[in-house]
Amino acid sequence: MLKLHYNLEKISMGLVAAIIVAASIGGLVEIAPLFTLDETVELPGDLRPNTPLELAGREIYMREGCYACHSQMVRSLADELDRYGPYSLASESAYDHPMLWGSKRTGPDLARLGGKYSDDWHVAHLIDPRSVVPASIMPSYPWLTRPLDTALLPDALATLARLGVPYDKEMIAAAEADALAQSRPGTEAADGFQARYGARPAVQAFDGDPSRLTELDALIAYLQSLGTLTDAPYRALAEGAP
Amino acid sequence: MTATLTLPERRIGLFLSVLLALMGLFMAAAARHGVMSLHGFMALGLGLGLVFLIGGSLYDPAPPHRRPDRYYDAPTRFGLTLTLVWAIIGMGVGVWVAALLYWPEATPPWPATSFGRLRPVHTTGIIFGFGGNALIATSFHVLQRTSRARLADSISPWVVVLGYNLFCAWAVTGYLMGSTQSKEYAEAEWYADLWLVVIWVTYFTLYLRTLARRNEPHIYVANWYYLAFILVVAMLHIVNNLALPVRLTTAESFPVWSGVQDAMVQWWYGHNAVAFFLTAGFLGMLYYFLPVRSGRPIWSYRLSIVSFWGITFFYIWVGSHHLHYTALPYWAQTLGMTFSVMLLVPSWASAGNAIATLNGAWHKVRDDATLRFMFVAAVFYGLSTFEGSFLAIRPVNSLSHYTDWTVGHVHSGTLGWVAMIIFGAIYTLVPQLGGKRQMASPRAIEWHFWLAVTGTLIYVIAMWNAGITQGLMWRAYDRNGALSYSFVQSVQAMAPYYLLRTIGGALFLTGAVLCAWNCRATLRGAREGAADRPLVPQPAE
Question: What's the fold here for domain A52-240?
Answer without folding.
Answer: Cytochrome Bc1 Complex; Chain D, domain 2 (1.10.760)
